[in-house]
Amino acid sequence: MFNNPFNNLDTLRNNVYWINPARISFYVPKSSFPYVVKRRVNKTRFSLVSKFFDQPLPFIISEQAFSDIRQPVESVVRYQIISDFIQNIDNYEQSIWFKKLVTDLHQKGEARHKKLSMTNLDEVHAFFNGYVIALYESLIADGFDLSKGKDVAKVYIDADGDILKGESGFHRFAIARIVGIKKMPVRVQGVHALWADGVTAKKPLAAKIDQYFSCLGVSASSS
């Protein structure tokens, strides 16, 4: 039976690869992919159409559907906030991040980080002391530990073979890149169709991705 090289590509999203975060220079938000934008527009109008477009991006993304945005990671606000925090880690109350949360607290009665809600200054301090600083110190001391079950950063591979940082795991990525950690786990969420060109049953996409990361001096493992 013919082995279709495009079968079960979604399972490739589970594979974990290790890479030096310094090799990732650009960020691409998922919302910048035309496929996702089209899905969102239709979702507000046609329930039947939204069911079709509410699927995740295909693993092999066509040239038309691939994002044309390449934002240098240093220009991403979250990256700048982390960089400033690290510079002020011994006095984090002077950091942009802390000041922003305190401003939100005073103006809105609540400061948020993802799903975490902070309603008083003690909770903001607890967030920094119990989470942010602990995360920083853990990465410095031990690097990344997959056994802790934390989010693995998501990346894409563009037509030229450049690795683009997605949205997941951005704070860990920023810390690792700024302080010079050499190994970080990532999961590939999709590849540009032109980069995947030449995939066959004898040379499946999984093997091409493995070879690509091996050339970077890192390895892959299935999660």
TrEMBL record:
Superkingdom, natural source: Bacteria
UniProt-recorded name of the protein: Uncharacterized protein
